[in-house]
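Re: the multi-chain job from yesterday

Posting the exact lines I submitted so nobody has to dig through the queue logs.
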Amino acid sequence: NAGVTQTPKFRVLKTGQSMTLLCAQDMNHEYMYWYRQDPGMGLRLIHYSVGEGTTAKGEVPDGYNVSRLKKQNFLLGLESAAPSQTSVYFCASSEREGSYNEQFFGPGTRLTVL
Amino acid sequence: GQNIDQPTEMTATEGAIVQINCTYQTSGFNGLFWYQQHAGEAPTFLSYNVLDGLEEKGRFSSFLSRSKGYSYLLLKELQMKDSASYLCAVSDSNYQLIWGAGTKLIIKP
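And the result, structure tokens for all chains:
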């Protein structure tokens, strides 16, 4: 099992450009999450999904969109990138909701917006 | 508001014991997680506490006091590979994880 994978691993964008980050999991998990991690701050939830075809906003959703057309994939889109979106993006998945919802993380995407 | 506090950085010696503290104020509580994150890598699960007390797993132990909003992660017999950041996260009333900024642990020979 590959677990959670993310593509690309690195990307440099110019302000105003768009891109899509892809997350895939092979654990048949219902829940998937997109986080960003910035120096000196905790992981912040951007969007999440509780199942195929569903998405919901997290703590910092502005400037991002997501889609979950297939259970195993969760896409994060930046329509018009801004320097404030320079960050490391992590995708995670978990089997279910509830108290014990251990999240499994992908390796991350390091995005720089110039 | 919701808040997770943990020290920014700690230094310890190989072979020693270190305790990393975490205090939290959240809207509801459905468990506390500790994750380990090596530089440039993804967080990986270490432990989970939902009831008061100590959970032991090999060299790592985690303690929880819900009345005090407090947890600690205890690492024994420190090894160089334990150099990493340790993230405390609380599952709130909506089962969303609220994350602390992490504690960077530096191990010296």
